[in-house]
Amino acid sequence: MDNILVLGVAGGSVIKTLVDEINFEGKIIGVEIDKYVISIANEYFHLDQIKNLEIIIDDAFEFVLKTNNSYDLIIIDIFQDIKMPNFLFETFFINRICDLLQPKGFILFNTMVLNEKQKKLNLGFLNAFDTTHYTTTKLHKVEELNELIVVESKL
To answer: pTM of whole model > 0.90?
Structure first.
Protein backbone atom coordinates (compact mmCIF):
# COMPACT_ATOMS: atom_id res chain seq x y z
CA MET A 1 0.00 0.00 0.00
CA ASP A 2 1.16 3.48 -0.85
CA ASN A 3 -1.48 5.71 0.71
CA ILE A 4 -4.00 5.51 3.51
CA LEU A 5 -6.90 7.79 4.39
CA VAL A 6 -7.97 7.88 8.06
CA LEU A 7 -11.34 9.52 8.61
CA GLY A 8 -11.50 10.40 12.31
CA VAL A 9 -8.05 10.84 13.86
CA ALA A 10 -8.93 11.74 17.48
CA GLY A 11 -5.92 10.84 19.66
CA GLY A 12 -4.17 9.15 16.77
CA SER A 13 -4.13 5.56 18.02
CA VAL A 14 -4.92 4.17 14.56
CA ILE A 15 -2.12 6.21 13.01
CA LYS A 16 0.34 5.25 15.74
CA THR A 17 -0.51 1.59 15.14
CA LEU A 18 0.11 1.98 11.40
CA VAL A 19 3.46 3.68 11.93
CA ASP A 20 4.83 2.06 15.09
CA GLU A 21 3.50 -1.49 14.89
CA ILE A 22 3.00 -2.11 11.17
CA ASN A 23 5.90 0.15 10.09
CA PHE A 24 3.82 1.71 7.31
CA GLU A 25 6.02 4.16 5.41
CA GLY A 26 3.61 5.36 2.72
CA LYS A 27 1.52 8.52 2.84
CA ILE A 28 -1.15 8.83 5.54
CA ILE A 29 -3.84 11.49 5.31
CA GLY A 30 -5.72 11.97 8.57
CA VAL A 31 -8.96 13.95 8.59
CA GLU A 32 -10.26 15.29 11.90
CA ILE A 33 -12.94 17.90 12.48
CA ASP A 34 -11.66 19.05 15.88
CA LYS A 35 -8.38 20.97 15.78
CA TYR A 36 -8.22 21.01 19.59
CA VAL A 37 -8.14 17.20 19.65
CA ILE A 38 -5.25 17.28 17.16
CA SER A 39 -3.32 19.72 19.34
CA ILE A 40 -3.73 17.30 22.27
CA ALA A 41 -2.67 14.36 20.07
CA ASN A 42 0.39 16.31 18.96
CA GLU A 43 1.33 17.22 22.52
CA TYR A 44 0.86 13.81 24.13
CA PHE A 45 1.24 11.34 21.27
CA HIS A 46 3.57 13.34 18.98
CA LEU A 47 1.54 12.93 15.79
CA ASP A 48 3.23 16.05 14.44
CA GLN A 49 6.53 14.14 14.42
CA ILE A 50 5.29 11.49 11.98
CA LYS A 51 6.89 12.48 8.70
CA ASN A 52 4.55 10.56 6.38
CA LEU A 53 1.41 11.98 8.04
CA GLU A 54 -0.64 14.93 6.84
CA ILE A 55 -3.45 16.06 9.13
CA ILE A 56 -6.36 17.91 7.53
CA ILE A 57 -8.80 19.75 9.78
CA ASP A 58 -12.11 19.19 8.05
CA ASP A 59 -15.41 17.42 8.30
CA ALA A 60 -14.95 13.87 6.93
CA PHE A 61 -18.06 14.09 4.77
CA GLU A 62 -16.92 17.39 3.25
CA PHE A 63 -13.41 16.04 2.70
CA VAL A 64 -14.54 12.98 0.77
CA LEU A 65 -16.67 15.23 -1.43
CA LYS A 66 -13.72 17.51 -2.25
CA THR A 67 -10.76 15.19 -2.62
CA ASN A 68 -9.64 13.91 -6.00
CA ASN A 69 -7.10 11.50 -4.52
CA SER A 70 -7.52 7.76 -4.32
CA TYR A 71 -6.38 5.47 -1.53
CA ASP A 72 -5.28 1.87 -1.03
CA LEU A 73 -6.88 1.79 2.41
CA ILE A 74 -9.65 3.94 3.86
CA ILE A 75 -10.14 3.68 7.62
CA ILE A 76 -13.39 5.08 9.01
CA ASP A 77 -13.20 5.65 12.76
CA ILE A 78 -15.66 8.45 13.46
CA PHE A 79 -17.58 8.72 16.70
CA GLN A 80 -19.40 11.50 18.52
CA ASP A 81 -19.11 10.03 22.01
CA ILE A 82 -20.75 6.62 21.50
CA LYS A 83 -22.73 7.62 18.41
CA MET A 84 -21.71 7.40 14.78
CA PRO A 85 -22.92 10.19 12.47
CA ASN A 86 -25.78 9.18 10.17
CA PHE A 87 -23.93 10.17 7.00
CA LEU A 88 -21.59 7.18 7.43
CA PHE A 89 -24.46 4.85 6.53
CA GLU A 90 -25.90 6.85 3.64
CA THR A 91 -25.63 5.40 0.14
CA PHE A 92 -24.14 8.61 -1.22
CA PHE A 93 -21.25 8.50 1.27
CA ILE A 94 -20.66 4.78 0.72
CA ASN A 95 -20.56 5.26 -3.05
CA ARG A 96 -18.17 8.19 -2.67
CA ILE A 97 -15.66 6.28 -0.54
CA CYS A 98 -15.83 3.47 -3.10
CA ASP A 99 -14.96 6.03 -5.78
CA LEU A 100 -11.89 7.02 -3.72
CA LEU A 101 -10.71 3.44 -3.33
CA GLN A 102 -7.87 2.12 -5.48
CA PRO A 103 -8.40 -1.19 -7.30
CA LYS A 104 -7.83 -4.07 -4.84
CA GLY A 105 -8.12 -1.54 -2.00
CA PHE A 106 -9.67 -1.95 1.42
CA ILE A 107 -12.11 -0.09 3.65
CA LEU A 108 -11.96 -0.68 7.41
CA PHE A 109 -14.98 0.69 9.23
CA ASN A 110 -14.85 0.70 13.03
CA THR A 111 -18.40 0.68 14.36
CA MET A 112 -20.03 0.42 17.74
CA VAL A 113 -23.00 -1.86 18.36
CA LEU A 114 -24.97 -1.01 21.47
CA ASN A 115 -28.51 -1.71 20.25
CA GLU A 116 -30.66 -3.15 17.46
CA LYS A 117 -30.71 0.13 15.52
CA GLN A 118 -26.92 0.10 15.27
CA LYS A 119 -26.97 -3.57 14.20
CA LYS A 120 -29.39 -2.65 11.41
CA LEU A 121 -27.23 0.29 10.32
CA ASN A 122 -24.21 -2.01 10.05
CA LEU A 123 -26.20 -4.56 8.08
CA GLY A 124 -27.38 -1.80 5.73
CA PHE A 125 -23.78 -0.68 5.27
CA LEU A 126 -22.70 -4.23 4.41
CA ASN A 127 -25.60 -4.70 2.01
CA ALA A 128 -24.75 -1.48 0.17
CA PHE A 129 -21.78 -3.18 -1.52
CA ASP A 130 -22.24 -5.04 -4.80
CA THR A 131 -20.87 -8.52 -4.14
CA THR A 132 -19.60 -8.81 -7.71
CA HIS A 133 -17.21 -5.92 -7.02
CA TYR A 134 -16.61 -6.14 -3.26
CA THR A 135 -16.04 -8.73 -0.55
CA THR A 136 -17.32 -7.78 2.89
CA THR A 137 -16.53 -9.24 6.29
CA LYS A 138 -17.83 -8.31 9.72
CA LEU A 139 -15.68 -8.98 12.79
CA HIS A 140 -17.78 -9.10 15.97
CA LYS A 141 -16.78 -8.00 19.44
CA VAL A 142 -13.61 -6.14 18.53
CA GLU A 143 -12.80 -4.44 21.84
CA GLU A 144 -16.08 -5.73 23.34
CA LEU A 145 -18.68 -3.35 21.84
CA ASN A 146 -17.09 -2.63 18.48
CA GLU A 147 -17.67 -4.33 15.19
CA LEU A 148 -15.11 -3.99 12.43
CA ILE A 149 -16.40 -4.08 8.88
CA VAL A 150 -13.81 -4.96 6.24
CA VAL A 151 -14.53 -4.25 2.59
CA GLU A 152 -12.19 -5.37 -0.18
CA SER A 153 -12.43 -4.21 -3.76
CA LYS A 154 -12.24 -7.16 -6.18
CA LEU A 155 -11.41 -4.90 -9.13
So the answer is: yes
